[in-house]
Amino acid sequence: MKTFLTALTLTTALTVPAIALAKPVTITANVNNYYGPPAFLALYVTDSAGRYVGSLWMAGGRSRYYEHLSSWYRASGGNMADINGLTGASVGPGQQLKVTLNLSDALFDAGYSLHVDAAIEGYGESSDDVVVPISTSGAGKPVNGRYIVSDLEYNM
């Protein structure tokens, strides 16, 4: 029940910001410069126990490659309904993904984490390329990625 309520809070904050207590947050992920096709990125949230709460954004339109975003795929069960309306173009080498979303105030300073999984067709994948606690003190501080994502930053 708690997971359902948390997911409902996250979903409500993204879809009905006038009702939920939420704040606009801009997430910027810079992709390393490499030679190859654009990267797929999954941005999602987990709770303090590491349980999947919900997806925030999916960069990349070909769902057949989503299984290569392995941590997101495993956590979400590959549920495509979970990302309806939350998709955009994949991100090319040396480019930036920048999305602004309304996130529930309940996610901040409460043990939730923002994850970024990344994959490049034919070049490999990097599950949990970036994992950062969602906190007010972490806003505006870049966090280095492990492989595909150069760095990630969120601002309120």
Brief write-up:
This protein has helices at 2-15, 70-76, and strands spanning 22-31, 39-46, 52-59, 87-88, 96-104, 113-120, 124-133, 143-144, 149-155. It is mainly β and 156 residues long.
Structural overview:
By secondary structure, this protein is mainly β. The protein has one domain (2-155): Immunoglobulin-like (Sandwich), CATH 2.60.40. 13% of the residues lie in helices and 41% in strands. It has two helices and nine strands, in the order αβββαββββββ. The chain has helices at 2-15, 70-76, and strands at 22-31, 39-46, 52-59, 87-88, 96-104, 113-120, 124-133, 143-144, 149-155. The strands form two sheets. The chain has a five-stranded mixed beta sheet with strand order 4-3-2-6-7. 37% of the residues are buried. Mean pLDDT is 88; it is low at 1-9 and 11-19.
In N-to-C order, the SSE pattern is: HEEEHEEEEEE
Mean pLDDT: 88
Order of adjacent strands in the largest pleated sheet: 4-3-2-6-7
N-C termini distance: 29 Å
Low-confidence stretches: 1-9, 11-19
Strand content: 35-45%
Q: Which class in CATH terms?
A: Mainly Beta
- The count of strands amounts to 9
Question: What is the global morphology?
Answer: globular
Q: Largest sheet at a glance?
A: 5 strands, mixed
The total of helices stands at 2
CATH architecture term: Sandwich
The portion of residues assigned to helices is 10-25%
Integer-rounded radius of gyration: 14 Å
Structural class: mainly beta
The total tally of domains equals 1
Under CATH, the topology can be stated as Immunoglobulin-like
